[in-house]
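Structure (tokenized):
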């Protein structure tokens, strides 16, 4: 069991939450309507590149948490 300052833990939690929020935003994409033979259909457009970067950022934050808090 390791001992860490509250400030360090809060900083890591903040960074993870921030990166998680970016991932969720990327996953939600943007809403748009497409004209089809049945009329206007609502759709969500998700940018694959944004998803990849956001997932990588979350993974990096988790690795940092593991490296700093996982020692014990």
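Design, position by position:
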């Amino acid at each position: 069991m390791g001992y860490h300052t509250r400030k360090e833990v809060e900083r890591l939690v903040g960074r993870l939450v921030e990166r998680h929020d970016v991932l969720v935003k990327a996953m939600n994409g943007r809403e748009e309507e497409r004209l089809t033979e049945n009329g206007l259909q609502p759709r969500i457009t998700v940018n694959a590149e944004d998803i990849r970067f956001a997932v990588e950022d979350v993974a990096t934050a988790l690795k940092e948490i593991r490296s700093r808090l996982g020692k014990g």
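Reviewer-requested clarification: The beta strands are 30-36, 39-45. The chain has a mean pLDDT of 93.
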